[in-house]
Amino acid sequence: MTQTSSTTTTQAITPALRQWIVEQAEAGHDAPSVLKAMLASGWTEEVAIEAMEITLGDHLEARALRQGLPARSPVPEPALAESPLRVDAGDRQVPVLLAMVQPRVVVFGQFLSDEECDALIAAASPRLARSRTVATQTGGEEVSVDRTSDGMFFSRGESPLIQRIEQRIARLLNWPVENGEGLQVLHYRPGAEYKPHYDYFDPGEPGTPTILQRGGQRVGTLVMYLNEPEKGGGTTFPDVHLEVAPQRGNAVFFSYERPHPSTRTLHGGAPVIAGEKWIATKWLREREFK
Ligand code: PD2
Ligand code: ZN
After folding, report:
1. Which distant-in-sequence residues (6+ apart) come within 8 Å of 100 by Cβ?
2. Which domain holds residue 49?
3. pTM for this entry
4. What residue ranges of the chain have pLDDT lower than 50?
5. Residues with CB under 6 A from ligand 1
């Protein structure tokens, strides 16, 4: 490969360069060696990395679509470039405790104050009813043995407290408030659990087109822990053997760019062994949730 433009002029990511990058990847060369070859040919590091990211991303997506996977969507994403210790969420700086790429999982500390946790529990308590899951055949809802919590939904923006938390979530995850479903509060007693599942709607199920009319697919989830069970009740990601401990005020975020198991976002609420567990969940849609 030759590259003739001077490094002081802007270097363009030409079709020929893109094709060359794809050929290198298909010949089995890993990313560091392709980058090294580009730098040796005079490409600046910034342009070389961008060219590889765009080209290989598009290439992988084309292959995924050929294999019959559903298309990729933009997803919520906290500002984690350069690995900051805290992320600006508007009214507070939220500590980052863990970040995983595949599946995309980020654990945050101190997302809610103790007062906010208590206020959510108090406001939700009189409105709890047995949790339901989506009835995949119809797009309606049904009681399920897979989900043995009690729960309720706040409507979006229904009180100053809910507004404040929703604004904080939107800022933390760079995702419009309008794309969020109402905040849900769940209460698990001893033995209660939420068996491993995906939060996106299965495109193959007959009820899914009806559900998608209200704002498209779910693309991300934020689970906020409102209290601490004595034992059990972690949020598990079985594909990667990860368990997030339910520490009061902390939150776990995960996103899924396509409604497919390749996202590795299978997750569950482990059974509460002792004590009880309270969480708030925010599900984020592709578009405005109406
Ligand atoms: O309670 C949890 O940890 C949990 C686990 C899996 C919550 C959800 N999913 C959810 O609300 O989607
Ligand atoms: Zn879930």
Report:
1. 106, 240, 242
2. 15-66
3. 0.87
4. 2, 4-8
5. 194, 199, 221, 223, 235, 267-269, 279, 281
